[in-house]
Amino acid sequence: MPFSFIRAVSSVALVVFALASIPSVALADGSLRGEYFILPSTYPDVGHGADDAIVRGLIEKRLGPDGLPVVTAHGRTYNGPSGPIRAVNAAGELLWFSNTGQNGIRREKVVTEKLPFVFDGFYPDGQNADGGKAGYRTVHWSGSFVLAKPQSVGFKLGSDDDSWVFVDGSLVVDNGGVKPVVDAPYTVTKLAAGSHTFDVFYADRHGAGANLHLSTAFPLVPRTPPATKAAAPPPKLATVASAASMATQIKKTGHVAVYGIHFAFDRADIAPDSSAVLAEVAKVLRGDPALRIRIEGHTDDVGNANYNRDLSLRRADAVKDYLVTKFAIAPARLTTRGFGPDRPVASNATDAGRAKNRRVELARE
Predict the structure, then answer these.
(1) In this structure, how many other beta carbons lie within 10 angstroms of the beta carbon of residue 174?
(2) Which of these, 26, 8, 28, lies nearest to 17 by C-alpha position?
(3) What residues contact residue 191 under an 8 Å CB cut-off, 6+ apart?
(4) Superfamily designation of domain 243-364
(5) Which of 200, 236, 305, 325 is most enclosed, with most CB atoms within 10 A?
(6) What is the 3-state secondary structure (H, E, C) of the chain?
(7) Structure confidence at residue 308 (pLDDT)
(8) How many CB atoms lie within 10 A of CB 276?
(9) Residue 331 has pLDDT above 70, yes or no
(10) Which residues in 301-312 are b (16+ Cβ under 10 Å) and which e?
(11) What local confidence, expressed as pLDDT, does residue 236 receive?
């Protein structure tokens, strides 16, 4: 049975998507500017399972302040095979298409490419597979077109995996998810006369295949998008001044929040700059041989709550192992808990608040 999908995108755009009896798209000359990035295999949003179908609703219907897709609440908590999307900036924008240098992402190249695109085996240059040392490729293509009169425009798109198309900053094709290629035609209607922008975002997030097909029935010219702002590193809060102050706080209230213990992004590996703070924690324990403490891990609310609870427990376990291994603290004196985002001490709406919520606490047993 033929299936059709019609969605109103805005007052000036309507997309019609048909999976059966797909007509050919009359090709037009044109080019797009492609900005290519490589996500390393350790990146938090790649190398998970395959959804094997389009997943809609992962991103908002409008581009964010830096011209990037904005991840929805559904995208941040999505529990399907490809997992939740966690790599976002303070505005909630997806960092797969931004050369921030964070978490190992890097710009591969910037090129102007002629349409139509038939990119199969679309792996990083010089590679015949993705994942491993090669990483995974993402691309942001940008262009513009001019209409002499109000009219509709048509194009054809298919991708393995995610692809999203925006016209004038509004989402007109929601083709997210890790899945095989399904080529389909799209029509954007009710466009006014004048100049319009056209942005395509593509991401390969799985080791099985990498393909992007795009052809348009209207001419496009490359467009240089506004420069995205480099995301500032998360603020690092001041460490507790000394072992004496921690011991005083534990004696007074039964617990103390410890800042300055840092971990690799999305992992439980303790960063080298944490050694001084952990040495102070060891002094607290050595100064009171009868003291038994519970090491508690806490996170902000970005991402899946259950995942963050597990991550916070692994980080608490890592602190325990560090104290046992480096400072010969008896394991029987230390227990661990992971609370994830469940016990915030500040608002998660700001970078500073999220940094305060990402902490280790010591609680007297």
Answers:
(1) 22
(2) 8
(3) 12, 13, 147, 150, 151, 152, 153, 167
(4) OmpA-like domain (3.30.1330.60)
(5) 200
(6) CCCEEEEEEECCEEEEEECCCCCCCCCCCEEEEEEEEEECCCCCCCCCCCCCCCCCCCECCECCCCCCCEECHHHHHCCCCCCCCCCECCCCEEHHHCCCCHHHCEEEEEEEEECCEEEECCCCCCCCCCECCCEEEEEEEEEEEEECCCEEEEEEEEEECEEEEEECCEEEEEECCCCCCCCEEEEEEEECCEEEEEEEEEECCCCCCCEEEEEECCCEEECCCCCCCCCCCCCCCCCCCCHHHHHHHHHHHCEEEECCCCECCCCCCECHHHHHHHHHHHHHHHHCCCCCEEEEEECCCCCCHHHHHHHHHHHHHHHHHHHHHHHCCCHHHEEEEEEECCCCCCCCCCHHHHHHHCEEEEEEC
(7) 85
(8) 9
(9) yes
(10) bbbbeebbbebb
(11) 53
- In this structure, the strands spanning 117-120 and 211-216 are antiparallel
CA-to-CA dists, residue 5 to 65, 81, 126, 201, 339, angstroms: 29, 24, 39, 21, 42
Q: What is the pLDDT of residue 20?
A: 33
Phi-psi region of 120 (alpha: psi -120 to 50; beta: other; left: phi over 0): beta
Neighbour-count burial for 66-104, b at 16+ CB within 10 Å, e otherwise: bbbbbbbeebbebebebbbbbbbbeebbbbbbbbbebbe
Q: How far apart are CA 193 and CA 78, in angstroms?
A: 39
pTM of the model: 0.61
The position carrying tokens 């709406």 is 349
Domain boundaries, the chain: 4-222, 243-364
Q: How far apart are CA 189 and CA 234, in angstroms?
A: 42
Single out the residue of 302, 305, 304, 303 nearest to residue 355, CA to CA.
302
230, 89 contact by CB (below 8 A): no
Q: What percent of the chain has a predicted confidence (pLDDT) above 90? A: 63
Query: How much is the pLDDT for 227?
Result: 56
Q: Are 169 and 140 in contact (CB under 8 A)?
A: no
